[in-house]
Design a protein that fits this description.
Layout: H1 3-8, H2 24-50, H3 57-69, H4 74-77, H5 89-103, H6 110-119, H7 123-126, H8 128-137, H9 145-175, H10 181-198, H11 207-222, H12 235-241, E1 249-254, H13 260-273, E2 279-283, H14 288-300, H15 304-309, H16 314-327, E3 332-335, H17 342-356, E4 360-364, H18 378-396, E5 400-405, H19 427-432, E6 435-440, E7 454-462, E8 468-475, E9 480-483
Parallel strand pairs: 1-5, 1-6, 2-3, 2-4, 4-5
Antiparallel strand pairs: 6-7, 7-8, 8-9
Helix pairs in contact: 3-5, 3-8, 3-9, 9-10, 13-14, 17-18
Length: 487
């Protein structure tokens, strides 16, 4: 047997020699590696903790416990918090139950709130009745409810910022795939702006603070009209309404084919071409080219039928070219995107307001809109549209015109004039609107009517002003209405 084989044999008591001792430097390196690994694990745990969305469980419990102990404290927090401001779903459900009871005039103590949650099959999901009593037990005093609510609201804003930041990060990555940088920056600004706007609320004002601006407005009206109003271009209509005012929701309604879209475009021409005010039309019915053709026909007195048929004469082309140079810079914006939702319209209107200023919004027309959600009825859906349009008018401080169809009521009556009750699909339109213009054209029913060539703008509702009827002349071959000749 060789010496090598001898060394490898375990029969002769051979023992492997111990490993040589490591140097101090190697030992230090191993300890340093372990230390770094331990620090990494600790930092990783901390990072995981910090990466939870901002929230304060104790503050949320403090708000809810205060409400259950002293239901009157709902007045201290209702303007500060929405249910979505709570981080934990159970807390959201409890707070929403308290709000629902408050809206019904019921003070919700622990027993009543538990009954409400039980009726909604949510009691067990929030932890049962014992959890409600735990909330009450852990609150030192309901007097601090407002301070708890401020903490919850602040954490909610931070969560919204985190979510907005996440979307901004995604936009940054999308920007590397062909998006224009300006668009990315604009959308990112809007995300953060939306968080700020969500916390801005209209506060009450003292009478003394409002007297001076009111007198200023009265003086402005006395001296020839308010600069902020949007003139319609119809003399008698402007006298009755003092123009279209910021924050107003206006309905233009008529039966199909009477000219309601044409009247809305007349308002836009008056605002933007003749008075330099910015306007936008969101059209779900006509394409952009069709809208521009109508605007050009009305401005140049070239028949719309000639434009469509391609039979314009040379003199008409010259007139068109001349007028184009005069109106091409008018601040009119046209959006003919298909399947527009109310949320998209509100978002686009906000962007226009920020970038270009905005004085008038037109929606053509209401019955073509869809929310894209499951709803119980079309009436409910239109009611929601109506509410959102009114909120948009107040938020942007511009008049919002919504074009709407009438039902078949006028056709079944001897007097064919439309009435306010003929508004189609929703009584909310009548309720939310500040003004309702019903357009009536006698020769749409009878071409031989003695008033052929005339139309009536019936002011069926005017919040804070007179109602009445304004006769105008129609020139639909030029796609426009005009003031009646005087004398």
């Amino acid at each position: 047997m060789s010496s090598t084989e001898n060394a490898a044999s375990f029969d002769d008591g051979f023992v492997l020699p111990p490993e040589p001792p490591e140097s101090q430097e190697n030992d230090y390196g191993r300890r340093e590696s372990y230390r770094k690994k331990d620090n990494f694990n600790r930092q990783d745990k901390e990072m995981l903790e910090y990466r939870q969305p901002p929230h304060d469980r104790q503050a949320e419990m403090g708000v809810l416990g205060s409400l259950l102990m002293s239901p009157q404290t709902v007045l201290d927090v209702i303007e500060e918090l929405d249910a979505e401001d709570f981080y934990f779903p159970a807390h959201q459900m409890i707070y929403q139950a308290v709000l629902d009871l408050y809206s019904q005039g019921i003070e919700g103590d622990a027993v009543i709130v538990a009954g409400r949650l039980d009726g909604l099959n949510q009691l067990e999901r929030v932890g049962g009745a014992p959890f409600l009593h735990t909330l009450m037990h852990d609150v030192p005093t309901p007097a601090n409810a407002h301070y708890y609510a401020k903490i919850v609201a602040e954490k909610s804003v931070l969560r919204q910022l985190v979510n907005a930041g996440t979307r901004v990060v995604q936009m940054g990555y999308d920007g590397t795939e062909g998006m224009e940088v300006e668009n990315v920056v604009d959308r990112a600004q809007q995300e953060v702006f939306a968080v700020a706007q969500s916390r801005q609320t209209e506060d009450y004002s003292k009478l003394s603070d409002l007297l001076q601006p009111t007198v200023t407005e009265l003086t402005k009206i006395q001296n020839g009209g308010d600069e902020n109003g949007v003139p319609t271009g119809f003399v008698d209509l402007d006298k009755l309404t003092n123009g279209l005012r910021p924050g107003q929701m206006i309905i233009i309604a008529a039966r199909p084919g009477v000219g309601k879209s044409t009247l809305a475009l007349d308002f836009m021409r008056s605002a933007s071409i003749h008075h330099g005010k910015s306007s936008v039309i969101f059209s779900l019915e006509m394409g952009g080219t069709e809208i521009v053709m109508r605007l050009l026909s009305a401005e140049t007195e070239i028949k719309l039928s000639s434009m469509r048929a391609g039979t314009m004469e040379e003199a008409e082309w010259e007139k068109l070219t001349t007028r184009l140079g005069e109106i091409q810079d008018a601040p009119i914006f046209i959006d003919d995107s298909p399947n527009l939702t109310m949320m998209e319209i509100r978002s686009k209107a906000r962007r226009l307001k920020q970038q270009h200023g905005l004085d008038l919004v037109v929606l053509d027309y209401l019955q073509l809109m869809s929310s894209g959600k499951k709803v119980e009825s079309r009436q409910q859906e239109v009611s929601e549209f109506s509410r959102q349009m009114k909120l948009l008018a107040k938020e942007l401080e511009v008049p919002v015109i919504a074009i709407s169809q009438l039902n078949r009521g006028p056709e079944s009556r001897n007097d064919k004039k439309p009435q306010l009750a003929d508004l189609r699909e929703s009584g909310s339109l009548e309720q939310d609107a500040d003004m309702v213009f019903l357009l009536y054209r006698p020769d749409s029913q009878d071409p031989d009517d003695e008033r052929a060539g005339e139309a009536d703008i019936i002011i069926a509702k005017h919040r804070g002003g007179p109602i009445g009827t304004v006769p105008v002349a129609h020139q639909l071959h030029y796609s426009r209405f005009v003031n009646m000749a005087r004398g």
